[in-house]
Design goal:
With 384 residues, the chain is α/β, with parallel strands linked by helices. The chain has helices at residues 13-27, 68-82, 96-107, 123-126, 135-144, 153-162, 187-193, 213-225, 241-251, 266-270, 287-294, 307-310, 325-336, 339-353, 358-381, and strands at residues 2-6, 31-36, 50-54, 87-91, 116-120, 147-150, 169-171, 199-204, 230-235, 257-261, 275-278, 299-302, 317-320.
């Protein structure tokens, strides 16, 4: 197939899934045309069968905010017409689905056979999409899609609850590269961070308020106060970093905390980790947790969104009530106080991650593409 994929180039879950899916499809022989306003970090090297198309926006004094959605639609028109795309797969409902609909309207009969497949990731539904300023457009765009997928059962149900959706929504989960994300402890690296049997607790996020990074610091402080020798690694960056840095100083634990910033090879850090903390207030799937589990790291998470679907309480880690930092700290202490329990959870975390193996989920998308393409072409052929 000749597939057009649109995604954001950021470190967030939707951008990661869009780029990794592109690479998985390319490895299976499909030609992929990836569109975005910048090259994603995970497409920073030459990939056979993948072409990157940067959507450039000319700045005019007339526009206070350059119209990216219109530039994207124009780019889609060119690719559909001249690259003979078989389908458009857009990640994140707005503006990507809206731009795809506009592109098809511009081309008319030339694009009638090209389906729009929209993958919903989370905030495009739970936060951005529910804003009254965007809700009608999101609702319309989803209903104009020829196929719709969601990354979790929670997100599917939330979409039906928040919008008036006529389309069926297929759940196709996020995935992980089991070869890349596997436990591969580099002892010299670990010794540079911890000594004398200290444990490593890790958190990875974009440091937005919804990630509740201050809860991570609170949990860690309680673990230290319980007499556990440990280090806390913060991976990523964002608006709440200065806040959590100040809190660590206030709690008196800053000498045991390291802020590593954005890291491309996060699997090297996860391989050293003993527990992964995810106390988020909103997580439609929890891709960072899945990557940690693939590296054999038990997860202590909140009970929101799709996290309970992924992280099995008492098996792959623990699920606690949102904001209950005492419970989270107790679960971390319990694991660090019982080597057998910790070892069982490490093994169970990896086993659970294997259910989300990249090639298996890419094959699910591939089968879904074929179904939607065949259905649309049949519909077009029978139109009077």
């Amino acid at each position: 197939m000749n597939i057009g994929i649109v995604g954001y180039p950021t470190y967030g879950g939707s951008g990661v899934v869009a780029t990794e899916l592109s690479k998985g499809l390319a490895q299976r022989g499909h030609k992929v045309h990836f569109m975005s306003y910048a090259r994603p970090q995970r497409l920073d090297a030459f990939e056979t069968n993948i072409s990157f198309h940067e959507v450039s926006i000319n700045a005019y004094p007339l526009f206070e905010y350059p119209p990216y959605d219109l530039a994207l639609a124009s780019h889609m028109v060119n690719l559909i017409e001249y690259q003979k795309l078989d389908l458009l797969h857009v990640h994140y409902a707005i503006p990507h689905t809206t731009s795809a609909f506009l592109a098809k309207q511009i081309l008319g009969a030339k694009a009638a056979h090209v389906p729009i497949i929209t993958t919903l990731h989370g905030t495009d539904i739970t936060i951005v999409g529910s804003d009254p300023s965007y809700l009608p457009v999101v609702n319309f765009s989803i209903n104009q899609s020829d196929g719709v997928t969601a990354v979790s059962g929670f997100l599917r149900d939330e979409t039906y609850m928040r919008f008036e959706i006529n389309n069926a929504i297929e759940v196709i989960p996020n995935f992980v590269d089991l070869v890349r994300f596997k436990r591969n402890v580099k002892e010299h690296f670990r010794k540079a961070i911890v000594q004398d049997g200290e444990k490593i607790i890790t958190h990875v996020s974009n440091f937005r308020k919804v990630k509740r990074v201050t809860d991570v610091a609170e949990v860690f402080s309680r673990v230290l106060n319980a007499g556990i020798k440990a280090k806390l690694l913060f991976v990523g960056d964002g608006p709440e970093r200065s806040t959590v840095e100040a809190l660590c100083r206030e709690l008196g634990c800053c000498e045991h905390v390291r802020f590593l910033g954005k890291q491309e090879n996060v699997e090297d850090i996860l391989s050293l980790s003993d527990v992964f903390l995810m106390p988020s207030a909103s997580e439609t799937f929890g891709l960072a947790a899945l990557e940690a589990m693939s590296c054999g790291v038990p997860v202590v998470s909140s009970d929101v969104g799709g996290l309970p679907e992924l992280n099995r309480d008492g098996v792959t880690g623990f699920v606690c009530k949102l904001e209950d930092v005492d419970a989270m700290a107790d679960r971390v202490i319990a694991m660090f106080s019982d080597d057998d329990l910790h070892a069982r959870m490490q093994k169970a975390a990896r086993t659970r991650a294997e259910e989300f193996e990249l090639d298996h989920v890419v094959a699910m998308y591939e089968a879904y593409y074929e179904k939607i393409v065949a259905r649309l072409r049949k519909k077009v052929a029978y139109q009077p």
